[in-house]
Structures are given as C-alpha cells and as structure tokens.
Amino acid sequence: MEKLDKKTFMIGVLTLSAAILFVANLYMPHPAKADLVVKDRDYQAVTARTFKGGDALYLTDNRQGLVAVLMYDPNKKQVIPMTVVPIGGAFANGNTPAPGGRTPKGR
C-alpha cells in the first residue's frame, strides 16, 4: 500500500471541509427581515426600516380603526411608542405617520 503524502492528505482535508460547509449552508436558518407583514381578521402588523436606522412596527387594529407606531431604538435597545392615530386620519392628504413624529409635507 502506498504511503499518503502531505499534498494528498491536505487535498482530502480541504475536500471534506468543503463538503461539510456545503451541507451546513443548505440547512442554515433564514435570517429575520424587517419587511414582514402579519395579517389577521382584527389586527395587522407590519415592520419597516426607519430613516434613523432602527426598525418600526405598525400595528393596525381593524375593529377600533386605529394604527399605532412603535419604534425600536438600537442605541437605547428598547421599543418606544411613537403615536396612535385613527386609520382614516393617518393617510389624509398624503401624510403618513412616520416614526419620530414627523409627517411628510402635502404633495
């Protein structure tokens, strides 16, 4: 039987590690995304990125007709309630409730 030289041994080790990494990549869980919508009959939740670099959660209560905006502040590492407004008033005149309390000017 032939002796295994160093070069052949290293090729075998690299091939084995490549196969392990390939299989691990197939079973890797999907990362969380900030563009998720969850809708039920009474409530709807939508996540979105904010212009300040954090994430915002828009909660809509379909029975009460309200929308609440919650923002995650990465510096403070806490969720901050921003506003609760009626759905009809939130989108009147093209103004939408933006995290931070600011609304864009009418178009």
Structure description:
The protein has 107 residues and is an alpha+beta fold. The protein has a domain at 37-94. The chain is built from two helices and five strands; from the N terminus they run αβββββα. It has a five-stranded antiparallel sheet. Strand 1 (37-39) and strand 2 form a beta hairpin. The longest helix is centred in the N-terminal third of the chain and has 21 residues, at 6-26. The radius of gyration is 25 Å and the shape is elongated. The termini are far apart. Mean pLDDT is 78; it is low at 102-107.
Portion of residues in helices? 10-25%
Rg value: 25 Å
- Share of residues in strands: 25-35%
Mass-distribution shape: elongated
Gap from first CA to last CA: 82 Å
Tell me the strand order in the biggest sheet. 1-2-3-4-5
SS summary, helix count: 2
Task: Sum up the structure in keywords.
5-stranded antiparallel sheet; 32% strand; disordered C terminus
Short characterization:
By secondary structure, the protein is of the alpha+beta class. The chain contains two helices and five strands, in the order αβββββα.
Sequence-ordered SSE layout with sheet pairings:
Elements: H1 6-26, E1 37-39, E2 43-49, E3 55-61, E4 66-73, E5 78-86, H2 87-90
Antiparallel strand pairs: 1-2, 2-3, 3-4, 4-5
